[in-house]
Amino acid sequence: FELSADLRELSLVEVEFRNDYEELAQQCKTFAKDLLAQARNSRELEVILNHTASDEHVDKRGLLEERMNLSRLKLAIKYNQKEFVSQSNCQQFLNTVWFGQMAGYRRKHTFKK
């Protein structure tokens, strides 16, 4: 996400290479979205969306709330990566995280909620 943003900035500074930088920035966005689309299960989505760039050791056995920091998703929002955030696997995973045990909640009639 940072690379895409850097390339967008460079396209404004180095006008003679604007088209090249914009194309590369778009390729970065597409790559991130396509990577998310390749996730085969919720565990892979969890790994992608919670990935941190830091070298900190993350306890994989920690509480669900601690593991679900969604740092990559937050970064995508920060850098306005709409394609990544709106990708269907991402949205499905977020529904699972947010509704969790209330899987049938969304299917209930509004009165019954």
TrEMBL record:
Keywords: Ion channel, Ion transport, Transport. One of its GO terms (biological process) is regulation of cytosolic calcium ion concentration. The keyword Transport applies. One of its GO terms (molecular function) is inositol 1,4,5 trisphosphate binding. It comes from the Eukaryota. GO terms for cellular component: cation channel complex; plasma membrane. This is Uncharacterized protein. It comes from Micrurus spixii.
